[in-house]
Write a structure and sequence with these properties.
Blueprint: E1 3-9, H1 15-19, E2 28-30, E3 33-38, E4 41-48, E5 51-60, H2 64-70, H3 76-80, H4 87-95, H5 106-114, H6 121-135, E6 138-141, E7 146-149, H7 154-158, H8 162-170, H9 174-185, H10 199-207, H11 214-223, H12 235-245, H13 253-263, H14 268-281
Antiparallel strand pairs: 1-5, 2-3, 3-4, 4-5, 6-7
Helix pairs in contact: 4-14, 5-11, 6-8, 10-11, 12-14
This protein binds a DNA duplex (13 and 12 nucleotides) through helix 6, helix 8, helix 11 and helix 12.
Length: 292
Amino acid sequence: LHSSRIFIPVRDYDLAATLQSGQAFRWRWTAHAWEGMVGRQWVRLCQQAGGLEATVAEPVANWSWLRDYLQTDVDLDDVLATFPDDEPMRLAVRHARGLRLLRQDPWECLASFILSSTKRIAQIQQIIGLLCERFGERVAAEGGDRIWHAFPTPGRLAACGELELRACKMGFRAPGLLSTGRLIASGAVDLDGLRRQSVDRARAELVALPGVGRKIADCVLLFAYGFEEAFPVDVWVAKALRELYFPRRKPSPPGLDRFVRTHFGPHAGFAQQYLFHYMRTRGKLDPQPDRA
DNA sequence: AACCAGGACACAA
DNA sequence: TTGTGTCATGGT
């Protein structure tokens, strides 16, 4: 019953848009497929007619962890039906219909977004790549002929010095990542415990961590815990709101917060991801080399 | 060569 | 409450 390959039937799933929309940073396009890590597992993903094909390095009996990560059981139509019926959302959804939210590991997601501040996605990928290569556990890929690295545990990072982290080109983000890693490694903060908290309590605990403000906390709430009312506002989404919704006057920060909370519905964070991806990739050529 | 990137933080007005 | 400087690093 063990297998190293599975076909996951799903419709309306744009794998390329999903893996390149700045929510996860370890997926690479190589040899007509996406390769990356899900937890401790190396995974190759391939978009196929009617679903996704997945390959792992060593046969497994249960694939629920991958379905959970990819969120293939989510009915996209149900989500899209809750979006506001306005022109910006129509544009954003038409631009990348099939864009999904992943369900990531909280620690990896938190650490990744601490490293994301005022960095372009390509650079975030580079920093995280160095971090994993130097401090992550070695993992077999594709039957063992190649080596990948798991994301470093909080304990391993806590054992690092700030200079070692700075050597991964993360600059001023190093002390925040280090302090947060040590708080989690010591047990002073329990990331798994946030799963059962309310959004507001979970956000409050995340914002209390060094290097974590409102925006990064909302990214973790959305991408790792599945709080889909979380609505991270970065420079791109701020630009989308400014240009598409408030072209004349600029709303105050609390006014804008009230707007996004009431206007985009129960899956506001999902809508946010469409706006983000639309603003970042409209007008550009598809970055994926050979796509049907 | 200036400018900017999925910000957070301390501090001023 | 809202505005400014600072913090690294690399690509356009």
